[in-house]
Model the fold of this input.
Amino acid sequence: MEKYIKIIGDSYYGYWNYLISEMFYPSWHNYFWWLLGLSVGVWLLEIFRPWRENQSVFRKDFWLDGFYMFFNYFLFSLIAYNAISNVAVEAFNDFLGLFGIENMVALHIETWPRWSQFLLLFLVADFIQWNVHRVLHRVPILWEFHKVHHSVEEMGFAAHLRFHWMETILYKSAQYIPLAMIGFGLEDFFIVHIFTTAIGHLNHANLRITYGPLKYILNNPIMHLWHHVKVLPKDRPYGVNYGITLSVWDYLFGTNYIPHEGKDEPLGFEGMEEFPKTFFQQITYPFIKKKQHESNPQ
Ligand SMILES: [Zn+2]
Ligand SMILES: [Zn+2]
Done:
């Protein structure tokens, strides 16, 4: 037990130092400044080449989504999640140790060229995320968490990181075991992480981009807008276009849907009028909703 408390303590202390150095010493290997730079860059594109010209530069929920962005990217994912996951990883390894398993690495790819290691990491991680995303739409209790992301009414870059912190836990947990078996360390995520952040920002931006023929590989603002539309096709009530960074899984598995450009399609979900509007209410909503259901089942 003491060991785990020490890990939590070290994680917070390590993170605090890390955050301070990130904020005050810009460098190429620095998430904070990359996120800031990408956000400003995509925002400038939205300002100078908007798809929906009548959408305000400070669109609806701009500041709320900006807060989500920093909360999810730094305060949660790197502070709390780091501490929790360091403990979970240690506990998991201790658990495996009980059975005499010391190392989970099943596939040794250290000898592969570095670019192919990255490509494999990226493909595996993205495919897992595509599946987790489908599950978020399919399982009712998980959908209550995912509603935060779908409560966006006007798309803009910051909507990318508007989601409930529980999603970080779900996505990262689902990725951990397969990636640990391939033998990747977390440091390797940096380039992949920056690339996926850029594509994710663009997917939610008020920009008319499809990347030409690359649209069958890369997710894009037009395709992702259809993921957010309020009225789904009758035969696909759970959703369409689940892609995160890559669109290829949707094309391969037939979940792609772009009937037309959809520039002014209404966004959201059925019954959204009752969905709370503030950060605190939104992140407590799934838990309150669950309680209400337990005390008053239909
Ligand atoms: Zn979704
Ligand atoms: Zn989205």
